[in-house]
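Friendly challenge for the regulars: who can give me the C-alpha cells for this chain first? No prize, just bragging rights.
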Amino acid sequence: MSHPNPTKRIRFAEWRVTDTQYAHQLWGDPQVTRYISKNGYSEAAIQDRLALEVTSQAADGVQYWPLLTPKGDLIGCCGLQQREAHAYELGYHLRPQYWGRGYATEAARAVVAFAVAFSDAQTLVARHHPDNLPSQHILVAKLGFTYTHHEVYPPTGLVTPSYQLPLTHPQPTTHLRFGEWQAGMGLLAAQLWGDPQVTAKITKHGFTPAMITARLTQEVASLKHTGVQYWPLFTAKGELVGACGLHYQAAGIYELGYHLRPKFWHQGLAEEAARAVVTFARQVLQAKALTAGHHPENFASKQIITNLGFTYTHDALYAPTGRLSPNYRLAL
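First reply, four minutes later:
Bragging rights claimed.
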C-alpha cells in the first residue's frame, strides 16, 4: 500500500512532478508556511519541496501525502519522512480554510495507522513551532506523543519542542517502562512465569520450564505477527515487575492481560500499566474494543478491570484453570 486509507472526510493521494498547481495552493500560501519557514516559500522552494516529496515516496515509500476532499479540493498534506532506520517524522500542513475543523487530527490518525500496518516504522517523532499550540494539542492529547526535548529547527532557526510515539509498545508511565520480549530473555521469563504465586490463578499446576519457554516463544511470535504482546514491565532501575499487554483476537479486537511478580502486588502498578496499554490500543492501534477476564477469586483484578471502564459480558470456561471466569469488554 502506497498511502494511508481514506477517512470519513479525506482521501490521500501522492505528489507527482506535475502537481505544481496543488503545490502552489499549499506551500505558496504564507499562512501555511509561517510556522515552517523564516521567510515563506519562494517559487524555487515550492518546486524543491514538491521534488522532495516525490523523491521521498520513491526512495522510502512515504511522503507528506496530499489530502483531498471527496470532491477533489486540496486540504493540505500529512504524512511521514524517514529520519533514520525504523524512525519516521510525522507532519502536516493544512490550508487555512481547513484549520480548526479536526482535519489535521483525522489525517494524522490515518497516517499513524499506516505506519503501524504498512511500514517498518518502530517509532514516530514530531515537532512543532513553539507558538503553534494547536499542533501541540494534537500531538499530545489526540495522538499520544510525549515530549522528549527541544532542538533547533533550521528552516525557522527556532528552538522547537520535539515528541516521540513508540509504535511497538506503550509509552512509559510514572513508575514503569515497557520492554519487548525477545528470544534470549529466558531468565527473566522464569522470574515471572516460574513463580507459582504468579501462575496460581492462570493455570492449574503452575508452569514447567518447558511451559515457560513456550510462553516466551508465544510472546515473541505475537509481537512479530500481530504487533502486540504481554510486554515486560520494568522499574526505572531495570527490575522486572511483570508483564502487561494485549493479545490479538480479531480485526480491531484485542485481549488485555497482566501478570505481576508478588513483591509488586497491591501498589497500583497493574492498573498503571493497564491504563498505558489501553491508551496504546486506542491511540496507536486504533482498536475497536478490548476484552479481559480474570480468575473468579481474583477480586483485585476485577476491581482493576472495572476501574478501567470494562463492563461484564458473560462467564466462560478458561481452559488453563478449568474454571468459569468472568469476561468483560471495553468499547474504544
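The chain has ten helices and 14 strands. The domain at 11-166 is CATH 3.40.630.30 (Aminopeptidase). Your move, everyone else.
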